[in-house]
Amino acid sequence: MNLISVRRLNKAFAGVQAVQDVDFDLAAGEVHALMGENGAGKSTLMKILAGIYRKDSGEVLLDGQPVEADSPRAAQRMGIGIIHQELNLMNHLSAAQNIYIGREPRKLGFLLDEDALNAQARAIFEQMHLRLDPRTIVGHLSVAKQQMVEIAKALSFESRVLIMDEPTAALNDAEVSDLFRIIHRLREQGVGIVYISHKMDELQQIADRVTVMRDGRTIATAPMAGTSTERIIAMMVGRELAREAAPPPETSSPPVLQPIVLEVRGLCRGQVIRDVGFTVRRGEILGFAGLMGAGRTEVARAVFGADAIDAGEIVVHGRAVRIRSPQEAVKHGIGYLSEDRKHFGLATGLDVETNIVMASLSRFVRLGAMVDAGATREAAGALVRQLQIKTPSLAQPVLLLSGGNQQKIVIAKWLLRDCDILFFDEPTRGIDVGAKAEIYRLLRALAQSGKAIVMISSELPEVLRLSHRIVVMCEGRITGELSEREATQEKIMQLATLRDTTRKAA
Prior knowledge:
alpha/beta, Rossmann fold, six-stranded mixed β-sheet, 19 helices, 24 strands, 34% helix, globular
C-alpha cells in the first residue's frame, strides 16, 4: 500500500489550470523525485498535499484512506511536512523561535521556556551536523543557513511524508552531503520523501523513482536508475534540449577593446570584503565564482549601496561616484538582481505590471502627478512577450506565478530601467533546465547589446559557459582571475580554496 496516493487532482487559479487530472504515488521509505519546468504544477501539487491550497476536485489518500488537509496545521497533524523553495522565515525571530513557532515549550503552564526551546533546536542542529547558535536572529543569517533552518523546522515535526522543494538551491557541497545523509536516515525509518529539484546529478544519487509533470499534467513515472537525463528533459519540455543543456561549442569573443564601464578599487567591509578590486567592460560578462560565504554577494550589495563600506572607490564610466543607497546606484545605471528574489526583488503581493514598472515609474508620470496607465501597460506587456513570462494577465499577483517566471519579472524590471551595469546574483537558482537555457540566451543578448554584466553563480558549468572572464573569491578577497580560455573547474576550485594563510600566521 502506498503512503500517499493522488487521484485525478485538479486546481485552478484565476482561470489558469495549475494542475489537471494529476495522479501521483509515494511509498513509505521512498525518495520520489518530482520534475518539470517552472509552471508545470509541481509546487501547486505539493502545496495541496501540505494544506496550503485546497483542491478543486480529485482525491488524496493517506494509508489508503481519503483525507482532506484544509490547513498546513491539519497536514502537519497527519504527518505531512514541507520545505519550501522560497524561504518562509520571520527575519526578526531567532532560529529556534522560527522552528517551534506556535509550539514553544512552556513552564508553569504559560511562561515561555527559552532554555528548553534553544535546547530542542540545538539537538536538531547537532543531528544535522549544523554549526549554528539557535539564538541567532534569522535575518542575520546567509540564505544557505536560512535554508538549513527551514529544513530543521520540517524535521522537528517528525513527519511521515516530507516534501522538499529545491532544498539544495542555496547549499554548498558539504551542506548537500549533510542533507543527503539526513535523507538516507529518514528513508531507513520509513519516511516517504518527495524531492523537487532540477539538478540531475542530485537526483541520480538520491531518488528511487521520478515523476515528470508538464503543463499541469503528469507525463510519466519511471525508475530513476533506468531513465536517462536526456529522456527526462525531453519529457519535461516536450522537445529535445540536449544541445541547450550542454556548453556551446564556442563563445563570443571577449570585448577587450570596449571601454571599462565599472571599476571597483580597494573595497573593504569588515572581514567579509577585503581589498576587492575588479573592472567590467561594455558588452562583457564577468563571472564571480567561489564557495558559499566567499563574499561574492556582499561585494554586489556593497557596490549597489545596500550595505555600507569601510573603504574603497567605485568608478562608473570613468568618474568616481559615492553610492550610499540602492536608489543612488540605480541613478548611476546599476541594477541588482538579488539571489533572494522574494524578499529583495519583488513585491509579491502586487501584480505583474506594477512589479515590472516600479523601478522606472518616474518615466510614466505625466503633468507632474498622473501615471500614464496605458504607457505602463504597453511597456510591461512588451517585456512579458519578450521574456516569454507565463502569466494569464498583467494584473496577476506575482505571488501566484512560478519561481522561474518571478525571476523573469525581476529581469524585466531592470531591463525597463535600462541600466548599463547589471549584477545577476544566482540568476538561475531554482530554475529548471528549459528556463535556464532562456536565461542564458538573455544574458548573452544583453551583453551583445552593450550591457556590462557581473554574474555570481555557485554552478561552475554556468560560470564557465557564460563568462568572458572569471574572478574567484575566498574568505572575502579575490584570489585570482581567469580568462575564458584558461578557466577550468579545477583551476576555479583551486583559487576558491586558496585561504590567506599568511594573514593567519601573522
